[in-house]
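User: Sequence recovery, please. Input:
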């Protein structure tokens, strides 16, 4: 089994620890990870798609076409990238006129969208391709001492008619991955609330974005969570950097460690904090050390 790893922008530039952990975890399960050389921004679904739909989908189709030329399906670690690429495939495969317009654009750079590649979120790869049983077999250090607040993010779940991840209001996929490595899920208010970053909110209205982050983190801390676990690089960045920003601006005191799902698995598999890239985080993860 092999996947073309679409990194997007946030993972390599803001959260390289996510890439490190993801590559290591997939390798442990015998999954070959291919680089999509020449890939660009996905581009972001809310911002780019709102201004120019054709350009947005043409850029997405170009990225997909590169993977098609590699004869590989795509794996992503960002909900925004997942939304853009999977929605682009849906739109192109169900609209011949749109597909022709996009391919007319791609023809100018000797590319063609054929519709042969699939896009999978890392959570789907772990749940379906790897499976809970195989994940459980790899656990060397059960994380029974850690209480986790799971954050799914918006684009992983919605629109539910396209995502097919079960209930968008009561999702369980990420929770089950947390449980299989021995950690405890905690219920908290605003679990389905946006992290504050997406849809251009962070770049357009930082105060509003930070207010969302503050409410989310407060809910997690009030539920006695030891960390927040995310499946999205942008959500990860918002929680990680957002806490630092809040500390500077309003004297915010919470320092909740932010852990990507593959980083959590890596810890359970016996990898060190450095080997899963958590040492790169801006918000300290020191409080986790005594609980692992």
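Assistant: Recovered sequence (292 residues):
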């Amino acid at each position: 089994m092999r996947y073309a790893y679409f990194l997007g922008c946030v993972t390599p530039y803001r959260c390289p620890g996510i890439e490190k952990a993801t590559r290591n975890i997939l390798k442990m399960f015998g999954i070959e990870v291919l680089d999509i050389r020449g890939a660009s921004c996905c581009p972001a679904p809310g911002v780019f798609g709102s201004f120019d739909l054709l350009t947005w989908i043409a850029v997405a189709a170009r990225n997909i076409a590169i993977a098609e030329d590699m004869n590989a399906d795509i794996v992503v670690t960002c909900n925004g990238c997942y939304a853009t690429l999977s929605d682009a495939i849906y739109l192109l495969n169900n609209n011949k006129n749109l597909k022709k317009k996009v391919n007319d654009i791609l023809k100018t750079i000797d590319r063609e969208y054929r519709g042969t590649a699939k896009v999978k979120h890392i959570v789907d790869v772990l749940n379906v391709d790897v499976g809970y049983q195989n994940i459980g077999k790899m656990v060397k250090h059960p994380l029974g001492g850690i209480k986790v607040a799971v954050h799914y993010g918006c684009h992983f779940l919605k629109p539910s008619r396209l995502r097919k991840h079960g209930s968008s209001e009561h999702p369980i996929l990420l929770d089950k991955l947390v449980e299989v490595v021995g950690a405890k899920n905690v219920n908290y208010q605003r679990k389905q609330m946006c992290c504050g970053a997406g849809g251009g909110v962070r770049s357009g209205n930082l105060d509003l974005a930070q207010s969302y982050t503050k409410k989310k983190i407060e809910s997690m801390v009030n539920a006695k969570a030891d960390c927040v676990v995310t499946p999205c690089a942008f959500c990860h960045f918002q929680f990680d950097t957002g806490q630092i920003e809040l500390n500077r601006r309003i004297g915010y005191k919470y320092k909740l460690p932010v852990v990507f799902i593959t980083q959590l698995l890596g810890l359970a598999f016996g990898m060190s904090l450095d080997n899963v890239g958590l040492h790169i985080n801006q918000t300290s993860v020191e409080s986790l050390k005594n609980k692992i």
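The chain has a mean pLDDT of 94.
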